[in-house]
Amino acid sequence: MSLTANLMKTGDAKDGAGSEFLAFTLGSEEYGIDILKVQEIRGYEAVTRIANAPEFIKGVINLRGIIIPVVDMRIKFNLGTPTYDQFTVVIILNIGGRIMGMVVDSVSDVTTLSPDQIKPAPEMGSAFNSDYMIGLGTIDERMLILVDIDKLMSSGEMGLIDKMAA
């Protein structure tokens, strides 16, 4: 997949001139997460559902002999009913040594943002908890909602994932 090759060559992009984010979509919005947390990107495949798990935890998959939990971010962020098509992908994350999958509608690219392109997260009284936002990344007319994936995936309800994977 060309995106994977692109991910690998971005490490030498700009010597610390900014932070690199993997851009992905959920519904009509574009989000970004720290590229250093991304282990790989895979096409969506059926998951094994776990009884009594919260709805946003789709289930688990076997990744080369490791059972990893998969979270559907559209359900997690309350963005309507997810659809799974040829663009749907699972981003495999490594967060503090914990491997997990995150289902998103699609991924687009890796973007380098300089500190002056990242604006503070606005206070929003919506379903999206701004505690999980780093800020908003702006590139010309494009805007990325930058997600603090460490904080999101280590929140209290995500602790359920640890229990499921055990």
From TrEMBL:
It is found in: Cytoplasm. Residues 18-158 form the CheW-like domain. One of its GO terms (biological process) is signal transduction. SMART domains: CheW. Gene3D superfamilies: CheA-289, Domain 4, SH3 Domains. PROSITE patterns: CHEW. InterPro entries: CheW, CheW-like_dom_sf, CheW-lke_dom. Keywords: Chemotaxis, Cytoplasm. GO terms for cellular component: cytosol. This is Chemotaxis protein CheW. It comes from Massilia cavernae.
